UniProtKB/TrEMBL annotation:
Organism: Guyanagaster necrorhizus
InterPro entries: HAD-like_sf, HAD_sf
Gene3D superfamilies: HAD superfamily/HAD-like
SUPFAM superfamilies in the cross-refs: HAD-like (SSF56784)
Protein's name according to its UniProt entry: Uncharacterized protein
Source superkingdom: Eukaryota
Length: 223
């Protein structure tokens, strides 16, 4: 077998998604036959459909709508009356600030940042990500948003270059949310926007030309 020529040391930029959404919805339906894997698959399907149809929704609103759609689907399957529990959707949509980070995530990111420029390209919104950003930057699982880890308002830069905030411990050179790229992944425009910004502001070279061509020719992305 030929040895692969692709090595991590060949790269200068690492791009992270950061989140994988978990759904605690099944606990409300003890008779449901869905496994956790089933509901995660269904959630991702519903979430993607909402993101395609309602592109301007912030991710918190996407979460709330996806929770509502899935709960009604489970109700239709298992006969549970649909109560007026819209507040549950809101609670779920605002729960990102409480989502945990893995114990080694912060240290690992800071170690990687010694050798690479780290970029976030996520479907989450700025307000929600600020809480996760604080956790990942400080290593404190109870950390919450602060001016050090929130997107500056007003922002002196075109985009959120988090390490430019004085006193920040962020390991990320660039943070891009849906509000910045105006596209939910896996749609292509967000990736192209990220590559343009990386080339212009982080590398200032033409080294991303081949990457762009690969992204444009990939069959994994949808418009």
């Amino acid at each position: 077998m030929a040895e692969s020529t692709s090595k991590l040391t060949n790269f200068k930029i690492l791009v992270f998604n950061v989140y994988r959404t978990l759904m605690p919805l099944l606990s409300r339906y003890p008779s449901a036959k869905w496994s956790c894997a089933d509901i995660l698959k269904e959630f991702e399907s519903v979430e993607k459909e909402i993101q395609i149809v309602q592109l301007d929704l912030l991710y918190t609103d996407v979460l709330a709508k996806a929770h509502e759609v899935l709960e009604k689907h489970l109700d239709n399957l298992y006969g549970k009356p649909i109560p007026d529990i819209s507040d549950v959707y809101v609670v779920f949509s605002n729960s990102i600030k409480n989502w945990f980070i893995f114990s080694d995530s912060s240290e690992a990111l800071h170690n990687l940042a010694k050798y690479y420029k780290l970029v976030v390209l996520s479907n989450v919104d700025h307000t929600s990500f600020a809480h996760t950003h604080a956790k990942l930057s400080t290593g404190d699982p109870s950390a919450v948003s602060s001016p050090l880890y929130a997107c500056p308002e007003p922002n002196p830069n075109d985009y959120w270059f988090s390490q430019k905030t004085e006193g920040s411990q962020s390991s990320f050179s660039l943070i891009l949310m849906v509000q910045d790229v105006h596209s939910y992944k896996p749609a292509l425009p967000g990736f192209l926007t990220a590559l343009d910004i990386i080339q212009k502001d982080l590398l200032d070279t033409s080294t991303l030309k081949d990457m762009k061509e690969k992204v444009l020719s990939s069959t994994e992305f949808v418009s």
